[in-house]
Records
---
Amino acid sequence: MQKGNIRVQTENIFPIIKKFLYSEHDIFIRELVSNAVDATQKIKTLSSIGEAKGDLGELRIDITLDATNKTLTISDRGVGMTEEEVDKYLNQVAFSGAEEFLEKYKGQNENNIIGHFGLGFYSSFMVSERVAVVTKSFKEGAAAVRWECDGSPEFSLTPAERAFRGTDIILHINEESKDFLNAYKVKETLEKFCKFLPVPIYFKDVNETVEAPKEGEALVEPKAINNTTPAWTKKPADLTKEDYENFYRELYPFSETPLFWIHLNVDYPFNLTGILYFPKIKQSHEIQKNKIQLYSNQVFVTDEVKDIVPEFLMLLHGVIDSPDIPLNVSRSYLQGDPNVKKINAHITKKVADKLDEIFRNERTEFEQKWESLGLFVKYGMMTDDKFLDKANSFFIMEDTQGKFYTKEEYISATAAQKNKDGKQVILYSTNPVQQDAYITQANAKGYVVVKMETLVDAAFINTVEMKWNDFIFTRVDADIADNLIDKTDAAESVLTNDEADTLKKLFEQPQDGLHITVEVKGLSADAPPVTATRPEQMRRMKDMAAVGGGMAAFYAQMPDEVTLTVNGNHSIFRSILSNTEAAQKEKLVRNLADLALLSQGLLTGKNLTQFISRSVEIMEN
Ligand SMILES: Nc1ncnc2c1ncn2[C@@H]1O[C@H](COP(=O)(O)OP(=O)(O)OP(=O)(O)O)[C@@H](O)[C@H]1O
């Protein structure tokens, strides 16, 4: 038997490892099972190049829980280790990592330290009072050895018995980690980190009594807890629509079928595979971030993909697998990492290319899914300038009749919607039902009104208007139809200046909570007699105030700005102007104004009550 001291300067580093290394103790399972997978892959490789002789046998990893003896054992049938290798890898190499770790982080804030320094194997001491390794190398004539260590720098190395090539890591679970002697806890942790590892993993609880099969029933074979060949590791050409959808359900049970997916496969200048899904979203408040899972060679790492995936794509679901992402380093390091930046840009480009492809090849389907899809696209256009450029080809707008337009198509369909500055005016409606009267009038002039109904749209309009130099957005009720496109040509009014003045004064009566401006214009005789509009800029400020933010309180206090446009050419004003009963005349004018306000949703409270009783009075006359 060999006894010795692990070569490390510090008297006892284990308390430090326990405290500092990983904030999540369950990570020891990830580390140990990953080592078992590595050892298994190595034997496969060695066998394929003829360096390992003979039959490899079944390659599997077994996790065995024995709560009575307080042990958890991870066994593999991989390369194993010779005595020299145990000494080299467990006593020296692993500890050089430990020393480096201590050097670097001496005296630092412990919360910042989640490092990875080749301490994988030693993470087992976070949960164990004693760890034994029984291993037998694949090399011909190698004898099995047992290495044991109780967490002090002392270890023992003795001859052992092991029938087959491979390694058992036997953890004697410590008192404070006794959670890991619970089968559910172990299974849950395996499920979290090992669900897609490439070697079959079996879990066994030795204290669980397995019922003997009844007469005529076959013994139920235990099943591996993992899917060794998840969809993202396969070639897109080998996968059907169902395969992608099934894999989605494997990741997110009980979720609705996704809209589209993108299979990522990059090998230069970095390695990355994965599948990103566009989920179906019915309402913007349903959006859930942190649904993308990050893997490294099929080992689960985290579902916090911030910095790796562009912000707007955090709305997507799926997996990304890359051995090139520094995994256990701190957030600030990740942000500055050149690989991470490249990956981020690449994902954006891939997603844009895919959307472009779907749009060109399956436009009808794309349009049908635009309600959900549009949310990602608009969010992306707002937050990422590169994406904004690319999105020009597939960003679409739906008009109030259900027809879709790209920006270019909108321009060619709306030649009449160029204003005096040569900008294309995109007319939009935030509520086609409520704004129906305005839409009808705009359509009558041949204008195309598109729907911009969600909260995202409000922010979207504000953002892209600043970036698209040749477009402005105007809400369809921002002005009377004749003035929506500012062309500076005025129509003739049939009223004399005096008559127009009288009419203006009649309409200029204060209204609670509203700031009213009146203008008399000569519009076409069949246009409505009075139209209430809200100036675009002021209305947007009010909308923003409603959502909150810096100037919210200020704008919220401002009275609503309303412009009443009186159509001097409407026949009703002939009869009103010739009416000799002052009180009746005033009531009629007031009612016309109120009707216009009503259509803008601006007639409320006392004003509304008065309107109703006045209407009844007029009808009684
Ligand atoms: N199950 C095993 N079978 C064979 N060799 C093993 C096994 N576990 C560990 N080893 C050997 O011990 C070495 C140290 O393992 P450790 O987990 O500490 O670091 P690592 O795997 O090299 O790096 P990482 O920090 O990424 O885990 C490994 O490189 C490997 O050679």
Note: The CA atoms of residues 197 and 298 lie 5 Å apart.
---
Amino acid sequence: MTILHIDGLDLRYATDAGPAAALTDIRLRVAGGEAIGIVGESGCGKSTLLKAIMGVMPRNATITGGAIRFDGTDLVTAGAEAWRRARWKGIAMIAQSALNALNPVKRVGAQIAEAITAHETWPRAEVEARVAELLALVGVDPGRARDYPHQFSGGMRQRVLIAMALALRPPVLLADEPTTALDVIVQDQIFRRIRTLRGELGFAMLLVTHDLALVVENCDRVVVMYGGLVVEEGTVADIMAAPSHPYTLGLYNALARPGQRHQPISIPGRPPDLVDPPAGCRFAPRCPFALPRCHTEAPAMQVVSDGHAARCLRVAEMDTLRPTAALPETWEGPQP
Ligand SMILES: Nc1ncnc2c1ncn2[C@@H]1O[C@H](COP(=O)(O)OP(=O)(O)OP(=O)(O)O)[C@@H](O)[C@H]1O
């Protein structure tokens, strides 16, 4: 059953250079308990999408179209009060950096308690019991509730943010690069914990990351974003077996895989200027497979198979293009 339905969402940022189309026609259905990975390079609109879902957009952002339906209500038309009710109890978010998100002069336990008391009026003893339960849930000794954030390691601080996000048992958890500041071993521990918690508590998760490998390990489905658009979506299995957008092929090349013959290949160039995006396919200027019409025709999502779609005019040829995409020279030389 769909718990969160993003339907044709458009968002613009007002900038000195003019309106920047940060999100264009985003469509996404999240089923209860499902984990979706949102991948793409920096600047593709991943964080903007999560902020829009939470209703915590910067002041210069405007939603210019579409709906964000949560639990039967379109939060975009229902407005600030509906969003306030949905936030944390319905949809919670783990921020990127625990250092910025935690108050350095407040004890950790008190900060988790605040995540509860800001929304619920529970007796004090119940709040304290829940704080202890939450710390235990994320693998932190509840005895450390009276410590300050600086007494915790980076990984433990990130666990505290997870505890805060889960405090009111939200059915949807948004995670924006929750482990970027941590080393790979700690990152692995945190994700193992998140997987266990999802198994126990059954929340749905939207995980934003530039790391396709994290998505493969932690998610059921993948959404690939480029230049504010969804360019490919499908199950993790479908997208790993048959990536069908040249941009996804580029991201795929950047993955380190066992038995790989060469170094990870990076995609040359930069994501598009969202104030003045390319006329046709937004990826065409960087795409080794772009044809002349790709520079003038903006592709719609094309069905690859049931539940798998890609926004590319050459999607039907992808089986023949894919082997070429795996070669480093494809991404170096002139377009074939
Ligand atoms: N407050 C803002 N005002 C103007 N432009 C913004 C603002 N916030 C983000 N942008 C622009 O919107 C686009 C999308 O940014 P966003 O942060 O959503 O991307 P991202 O994919 O999450 O990147 P990252 O991984 O670096 O967080 C970028 O071009 C960015 O420069």
Note: The CA atoms of residues 155 and 189 lie 9 Å apart.
